[in-house]
Write a structure and sequence with these properties.
There is one protein chain. By secondary structure, the protein is an alpha/beta fold. The chain is about 30% helix and about 25% strand. The chain has seven helices and eleven strands. About 45% of the residues are buried.
C-alpha cells in the first residue's frame, strides 16, 4: 500500500515541541505507522514529491498566515491545486485547510469574528450527512480549534460541511476527494491546553480568561474520527485504482 504524505507547514509552539512535530501528531492521531507515512517540511523548503506516489496527502496547521503569501506557501498551493485537480485525496488541517481553499480559488483572511480557541462546537451543515467523512455523525461535534484567519470565501464548487459560532467554514469538500477542516483533529486535551497557555497573554488582551478556557477543554474523539475516515477512504481509492 502506498504511504501517506504529511506536509508540515510549521512547527508546534515551543513548549510542545518535546512531543514531536505536527507530522508525528497527525500520524499518531490518524493511526499510521512510521512506514505508512512520509513527512515533508515544506516551510523549510524541502522538495515536494512527484504525483502518484502516495495514497493521500495531509497538510498540517501552522503559526504562519496564508495571506502573507510566503514563497514556500505559494509553491505548495500550486502543488496542491494540481494534486486536487488530478484526484489525489487531500485533507487540510487549519492552515492546510486555508491553503487548499486559497489554492482552489477561495479567499482567506482574518476571521471577522476574531480568534477561535479551545474546545468548540462544530455544527454540521444540511447535507453533511451524505459526505463520506461525516456520514452518521450527530449535528454537533466537539472539536479543538486555534486560529486567527479563516476561509471567508470557499473555493468555487466547494460544499461547506460544517460551521461554528465563530467560523462559517469549519469544513468543506471540493470534488470527490479534497477536504479541509479548520479544527484540529490531531490535538489531544493536553495539546489544546498547551496552546491556550502559549497564547495566554494575547487571550487576556482580547478579554478572554485563559484559565477558564483551558478548564473547559474536553476530549474530541469524533473530530479525530474524521481524520481516520479520510485515511480509510484514501486507502479504498488507492486499492480501487482511483
Amino acid at each position: 500500500m502506498k504511504p501517506f504524505l504529511v506536509l508540515e507547514t510549521g512547527d508546534p509552539v515551543p513548549s510542545l515541541r518535546r512531543h514531536g512535530g505536527f507530522g508525528h501528531w497527525i500520524r499518531v492521531a490518524a493511526g499510521l505507522s512510521g512506514r505508512e507515512s512520509q513527512v515533508v517540511r515544506v516551510f523549510e523548503g524541502e522538495d515536494l514529491p512527484g504525483p502518484g506516489a502516495h495514497a493521500g496527502v495531509i497538510i498540517s496547521g501552522s503559526g504562519a498566515m496564508v495571506t502573507d503569501r510566503q514563497p514556500w506557501s505559494e509553491r505548495t498551493a500550486g502543488w496542491l491545486r494540481s494534486a486536487a485537480e488530478a484526484g489525489q485525496p487531500l485533507f487540510g488541517i487549519c492552515y492546510g485547510h486555508q491553503l487548499i481553499a486559497h489554492a482552489l480559488g477561495g479567499r482567506v483572511d482574518d476571521n471577522p469574528q476574531g480568534r477561535e480557541m479551545g474546545t468548540v462546537s462544530v455544527d454540521l451543515a444540511n447535507g453533511a450527512g451524505q459526505d463520506p467523512l461525516f456520514d452518521g455523525f450527530p449535528r454537533q461535534v466537539p472539536a479543538q480549534a486555534s486560529h486567527l484567519q479563516t476561509v471567508v470565501q470557499p473555493p468555487p464548487g466547494a460544499s461547506v460541511l460544517a460551521m461554528s459560532g465563530r467560523d462559517n467554514c469549519q469544513a468543506f469538500r471540493w470534488g470527490e476527494a479534497t477536504w479541509g477542516v479548520q479544527f484540529h483533529p490531531e490535538f489531544s486535551v493536553g495539546m489544546m491546553r498547551g496552546y491556550i497557555h502559549a497564547r495566554a497573554d494575547a487571550l487576556r488582551k482580547e478579554g478572554t480568561c485563559p484559565r477558564e478556557l483551558a478548564q473547559a477543554v474536553r476530549p474530541t474523539p469524533a473530530a479525530r474520527r474524521v481524520l481516520r475516515r479520510f485515511i480509510h477512504l484514501a486507502r479504498q481509492r488507492a486499492r480501487n485504482g482511483a
